[in-house]
């Protein structure tokens, strides 16, 4: 199990570096004025009479010009359309992986009920993209022969796929539903969305230690820390391989594989899973910037600055 988690950690780390780099370049591009641009000359009195056909012939239009769009209201409307009435998101990381517990520029939002917490975790854990993701991770695990007690061949691959799915599902429910319901903590990630790269990265990484309660206060993230530890213990001591002896008849060959059900392996799994979740939060922080750049959408910085501090 530990090698499987490390593989996911490394993959997300590479993606985090890539997206953070893209976000930094986007931020610099937004702060740098376009070369050769000049501020429009102020209108002079009497210019309307010298512009010829450029002047509107409609007196009503001249008196009541169309009001300028408010970027803050536009961004708030986009956020409302995105979250709907559920208080969760419809976004997907890399346009594929479920990102339903991330809110952009949310400010103060109503807490999730116990039913909503279980519903959103269920929706993400059994999403149609999860199966290809687990198939991919299991193929890497098979190639590395991690947890050799599973063996090789299609039988070993099937066991690895089942274990990967169970590992991810148990961890999702423990950290996103069971512990948040019992402890009244909010499992959502609230994007900061503004400030320097370092500030945003540190903010994202700290959310695995500090989270919101259902009442909107800040609290130690018991759900992530202890929920992840319990998930690692359940998966390690229940269905992961025990010690096993492989043998071949011709010629006789014996290979002993030690058990993965140890306290040290459980601690290693919990630590690597915690690091993986932390890097995932960093990706979640900068992913909206990259997504808007790819879609050529405004960055919504005015709306971000209008939000209360978190």
SSE order in H/E notation? HHHEEEHHHEHEEHEEHH
Ends: how far apart? Answer: 36 Å
Work out the oligomeric state of the chains in this entry: single chain
**Which structural class fits the helix and strand makeup?**
mainly alpha
Number of strands: 8
- Strand percentage lies at 5-15%
Describe this structure in words.
With 310 residues, the chain is mostly helical. It has one domain (2-13, 71-306). 55% of the residues lie in helices and 8% in strands. It has helices spanning 2-31, 59-63, 71-83, 114-125, 130-144, 153-183, 197-206, 222-238, 263-294, 301-306, and strands at residues 92-93, 97-98, 102-103, 189-190, 210-212, 218-220, 244-248, 253-257. The strands form four sheets. It has a two-stranded antiparallel sheet with strand order 1-2. A hairpin with a 3-residue loop joins strand 1 and strand 2. Helix 5 (130-144) packs across helix 6 (153-183), helix 6 (153-183) packs antiparallel against helix 8 and helix 7 (197-206) crosses helix 9. The protein is elongated and about 70 Å long. The protein starts with a helix and ends with a helix.
